[in-house]
């Protein structure tokens, strides 16, 4: 899935079958993220990067708790 954002370059996310996590493709690098607990929506992370998929399907990415991409929608 490719996302376009209000700030920053587009990025892609691959959700492997079975829902075990996600692979974030950002700036030419891939990051394997595991699913994390969250109150609403879905959240994935690797200790540095986190991907948040809200219930309205908007998405944002953080790097070390600072928003890197926000206002992202599926292309």
Structure description:
The protein has an 8-stranded antiparallel barrel. The protein starts with a strand and ends with a strand. Helices cover 0% and strands 59% of the residues. By secondary structure, it is mainly beta.
Annotation keywords:
75 residues; mainly beta; eight-stranded antiparallel barrel
- Sheet-strand content, in percent, reads over 45%
State the end-to-end distance: 8 Å
Q: What is the average per-residue confidence, as pLDDT, rounded to a whole number?
A: 93
Q: List unreliable stretches of 5+ residues.
A: none
**Rg, Cα atoms, Å:** 11 Å
C-alpha geometry: globular
* Element-by-element helix/strand order: EEEEEEEE
Task: Classify the secondary structure makeup into a structural class.
Answer: mainly beta
How many helices in DSSP terms? 0
Largest sheet: spatial strand order: 1-2-3-4-5-6-7-8
Largest β sheet strand count, sense and barrel closure: 8 strands, antiparallel, barrel
The overall strand count is: 8
Percentage of residues assigned to helices = under 10%
């Amino acid at each position: 899935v490719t996302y376009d954002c209000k700030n920053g370059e587009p990025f892609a996310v691959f959700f492997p079958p079975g829902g075990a996590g996600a692979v974030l493709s950002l700036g030419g690098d891939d990051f394997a993220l595991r699913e994390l607990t969250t109150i609403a929506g879905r959240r994935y992370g690797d200790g540095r990067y986190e991907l948040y998929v809200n219930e309205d399907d908007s998405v944002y990415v953080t790097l070390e708790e600072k928003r890197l991409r926000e206002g992202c929608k599926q292309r």
